[in-house]
Structures are given as structure tokens and as C-alpha cells.
Amino acid sequence: MKFFVISLLLSLNISFAQTLYETIESEVLGTSRELKIQLPRNYEDNLEKSYPLIVVFDGDYLFEVVAGNVDYYSYWGDMPEAIVVGVNQVNSKAQDYMMSLKDYLPSKTGAQFYDFIENELIVFMNENYRSLNFRMAVGHGKSANFINYFMFNTSPVFNAYVALSPSLSYNMEENLTRRLGVESKAKTFYYLATATLDFKQNKNDAIALNSKISALENSTLLYAYDNFEDATHYSLVAQAIPKALQNIFIVFQPISMIEYKDYILPSEASPVAYLIEKYDMIESLFGIEKQILVNDFRAIAAAIENTKQFELYRDLAKLANTHYPDSTIASYYLARHYEELGRLKKAMNIYYSAYMLDDIEGYSKDDMLERADEIKTEYGY
């Protein structure tokens, strides 16, 4: 029976995210640190593929929440697959977050921990795993305050920051607001969360900080905030992590009905140009060349039909042929283009040529051959 179950699992080729446990020797700290590392599904099978890196502070309890959500959302295509590394700080929190009472910057062991993250941990992950330059830092409480210090560097090592109920140090609110108000060459993602039952000081500081950040006018800042009803300092984490991932990776997600109705349909620009720009932005922000989803092609085709800009079908066909050259999708769009031009025989022949191609979701060979037969019958070709 056991052999049967194992054989069944192997035959189904089920893949799971891999969790590894590593120890890194730190010259800066003068000791070793335990790491938890989650690699994406099929990491070993995609040797040419690299991934964003998510660094989880307080990894002794926060890692599993982040890693589980990353695996879930990437499975459904709502965010890119990513490498998640958690730093175990169960016995070192007080030392790791030590700061000077003079200037409230990381001091002594706190400064050493900062250097460990920036100059040892990230280097270690780059050298041993296929991580991209898009990096996210996740912190809770004191670590949510600590991750802000990395932003004050001339060339920050992180692009995105998830601050869950931060215990803000003196002047952090003012300094952080000033920093987030400055436009930079690269986009900065910042997510802030508190809750109605959060620690009073943390909640008040987060509300005040949100008020200031929300008032900023910075086109390179992508900011989101949540105040969770009836959640505590600890329970807000489970609600905040998925919201943070959704907000940070919103452009990566498939075109939604809201995006379609609020941005694509009302725009005077070409919906095909919108699609190209969306995927160019994904590559620019995350360093990922993502194949355009069939779902997104279908959304743009629907916009073309809705706005009756049928001439754009030709541009959409060219784009589809680049991403799915062996499928029926490009032929369908090109045939629709010629149909609307009144060149029905040309459209019919393109529909018929689909029998040599592969079916793709929503564009079957049978449907296209049926459409060709209808044109032939109706117009006597």
C-alpha cells in the first residue's frame, strides 16, 4: 500500500516548495546564524531562472507565515516565485536591534547586525542561490522599525519594505517621511500595517506615520496601509502578509475586472499599448521577463471588441505570435482583423490554417474551423 501511494505521487509529478536549514558563519557578528530558506517549486528544474529575494527578520516565528503566503500567491500567478530566507533571532533580538541613545541609529551589536544583513547575508544568498536584485524586507515590531534603516543608505539593498506594527524609534517618523518623499531612480514599495487592538503606542505611531506618508507626492513611491479591525499586535500578521504581497505585486497579477473597467476601457490609449506597458513594467520593477498570460490577451481582445478598435487586432496578433508562435491565438486575432476590414476570404483562409496549430485556452481549432465554414457557406467562397 505504501509503495502504491509513493508511486502515485511520483506519477502525478507533484512539486512542493523546498525548505532548507542552513548555518552561515558571520565574521561581523563573530558567531553563526541559523537560516530558514524556502526555494520555489521546481527550483532545481529551472536552472536558467532567477527569483526575487525576500528577507524575513524575526525568522524564528515570522518565516512560516511569509513563506506559506509566498508559495500560495506565486502558485496562482499573483506574484512571482521568490526565494524566502528567514534569520533566526530567537536568542539575539535585544542585541540585534541595539541603537544609540544619542542619535537613535543602530549601534554596537545593532550596527554589526545591520552589516551582517547587508554585507554577508545578501552576498551569501546571491552566491549560493539564484536571487535577483529585487529584494523585500519583512519585519514585525522592533524589526519593522529596524528595516527602515536600510532605506537611508545611498544605494538601498531593498526595494520593498513590509512594516508590521513597527515600534518606531525616536525621530523615525520624521526621518522616514522625509526619505520616502524623495523621488529616486528606482521604485520603492512600502507597506505599513497596524490594528485596532495593537499595542497603543505602535498603533498611534502607525496612524500618524500613515497620515504623513499618504500626503507625500512621490511618483516613485508605491505605498499601502491597513488598520485591521479587531486584530492584535500578533494576529495582524496573518492578515497583513497577504495584503502586503497583493499590493507590492499588483502589477504582476493578471488583468482583473477592476483593472479592465477602470483603466483599460476608459483610456484613450491603445489597449494593446497598455498590455505592452504592463509587462515592460513587470520587467523593469522585478527584473523578470514574464510571458504575457492568455487571460491578459483575452482581456485586451475584449477591450478591442468593446471599443470597436478592430484595427488593433493586427497589433495584438503580432504580439501573440511572439509569445505563443505555435498556437491558434495569433491566427484568430489576425483573422478577426481581416473580417472587420471586409476581407472575408482572407479571414477564412487564416481560420482554416489553424488546423496546423496547437489549441490554447479560449481559442480552439474546432471553433476557428467552424467560423471558416460559416464564412464559406454565407458568402459562397
Question: Can you put this structure into words, describing what you see?
Answer:
The protein is α/β, with parallel strands linked by helices and 381 residues long. The chain folds into two domains: 2-252, Alpha/Beta hydrolase fold, catalytic domain (Rossmann fold); 257-379, Serine Threonine Protein Phosphatase 5, Tetratricopeptide repeat (Alpha Horseshoe). Helix content is 48%, strand content 17%. It has 15 helices and eight strands. It has helices at 2-12, 59-75, 93-96, 109-128, 142-146, 172-180, 200-214, 236-248, 257-264, 271-286, 294-307, 312-323, 329-341, 344-352, 365-379; strands spanning 18-26, 31-39, 51-56, 83-87, 131-140, 160-164, 188-197, 221-232. Strands 1-2-4-3-5-6-7-8 form an eight-stranded mixed β-sheet, with helices on both faces. Strand 6 (160-164), helix 6 (172-180) and strand 7 form a beta-alpha-beta unit. The longest helix is centred in the N-terminal third of the chain and has 20 residues, at 109-128. The radius of gyration is 25 Å and the shape is elongated. Mean pLDDT is 94; it is low at 1-13.
List keywords for this structure.
single chain; 2 domains; eight-stranded mixed beta sheet; Serine Threonine Protein Phosphatase 5, Tetratricopeptide repeat; Rossmann fold; disordered N terminus; 381 residues; alpha/beta; 15 helices
**Count of distinct strands:** 8
Q: Do you know the CATH topology of the largest domain?
A: Rossmann fold
Q: Which regions are unreliable across 5 or more consecutive residues at pLDDT < 50?
A: 1-13
- Structural class, by secondary structure, is alpha/beta
Report the end-to-end length measured between terminal Cα atoms. Answer: 62 Å
Q: Which second-level CATH architecture of the largest domain applies?
A: 3-Layer(aba) Sandwich
* Sheet with most strands: 8 strands, mixed
Proportion in helices = 40-55%
